[in-house]
Amino acid sequence: MGKKERAQERREKRRQEISLLRTIPYSDHQRGIGVEIAHQLASHGLTVLLTSRETRVGEKAAKVMQEGGLNVVFHQLDIVDPASIQSLSDWIKEKHGGLDILINNAGVNFNFGSDNSVEFAETVIKTNYFGTKSMVKAMIPLMRPSPFGARIVNVTSRLGRLNGRRNRIANVSLRQQLEDVNSLSEELIDNTVNTFLGQVKDGTWISGGWPQVFTDYSLSKLAANAYTRLMARILSDRPEGHKIYMNCYCPGWVKTAMTEWAGHTSPEDAADTAVWLALLPDQVVSGKFFAERREINF
User: Fold this and answer.
1) How many domains, in total, are found in the chain?
2) Burial level of 1, CB count in 10 A (0-12/13-18/19+)?
3) Distance of CA 21 to CAs 17, 24, 31, 112, 256, Å?
4) CATH of the domain at 15
5) Range name among 15-19, 30-34, 211-215 with the lowest pLDDT average
6) Cβ contact 258:21 at 8 Å
7) Nearest to residue 129, comparing CAs of 193, 68, 176?
8) Measured CA distances, 163 to 118, 171, 175, 294 (Å)
9) What stretch of H or E contains 116?
10) Which DSSP string corresponds to 23-79?
11) Is pLDDT above 60 for 213?
12) HEC profile of 173-222
């Protein structure tokens, strides 16, 4: 079997195990970022609503934390399924009356090492960008009033930076449009990812000037970053007591199933910035990009 065939086999295996890439059962040696974020938030005394596409996986993770004395409850969620998002929304309203913090962690990537296939580009874009966007829109009406403001944290990646020296969109005009938060629009972001998907279908994406590393994943995270900035601007008009602060952060190259356990950052360290952003008591910022508790450039 050649290198190309082995890479294709690996991507197919990752597709079949997609649910495990979203939430990993909580254990001492196999913790996903999402579960670790839930664990750290619950350790601060919060009630945490943990979600997973796979009910068995999510229930197991929640049970382990419950047995450790943490207040964690589970509900099934598939962020690319509108009916599933609606079911979660209805359940939150009925059982909890609303929420104070939303952390969007669900995401997929089918490339590894030197691979740069776009075989599953539609799934990647649909999950990492459109799914995240759908969750934000569905949860905003449920965010409870607070003098400190509700919080939304999107888990993204440095691979999605607009002006990264080695991995960026070649079209300077498009980069400038995406960078200008005052003229940034949902339509522009959608058109950008849909243009890429159209080129994937007709086979012209390689000459399209897209990011060179993990192209579909990088673009999906670029879109999620841009959407974070857009929504932070829109949400800034909310009155005091009803503020919602929205930021994104890069957890780094983490030792999880997403990286086939090849990362160099532990899930505990990767979760830290998300929890920090969620719990900042004052001097809250919005529409910014962070890594290791430091603001970085988009």
Assistant:
1) 1
2) exposed
3) 7, 7, 11, 13, 8
4) 3.40.50.720
5) 15-19
6) yes
7) 193
8) 22, 11, 8, 18
9) none
10) -PPP-SS---HHHHHHHHHHHTT--EEEEESSHHHHHHHHHHHHHTT--EEEEE--T
11) yes
12) HHHHHHHCCCCCCHHHHHHHHHHHHHHHHHCCHHHCCCCCCCHHHHHHHH
What pLDDT digit, counting tens, does each position of 135-165 carry?
999 999 999 999 999 999 999 999 999 988 7
pLDDT digits (tens, 9 = 90+) for 260-275: 556 668 878 889 999 9
92: nearest Cα among 147, 49, 121, 32:
49
The domain in which residue 10 lies consists of 3-296
229: tokens are 């900035």
Active-site residue (options: 26, 129, 217, 227):
217
Q: Is 217 a catalytic residue?
A: yes
Handedness of CA 15, 16, 17, 19 (dihedral sign): positive
Beta-carbon contacts of residue 153 (< 8 Å; ≥ 6 apart): 101, 102, 103, 104, 246, 247, 248, 249, 274, 277, 278
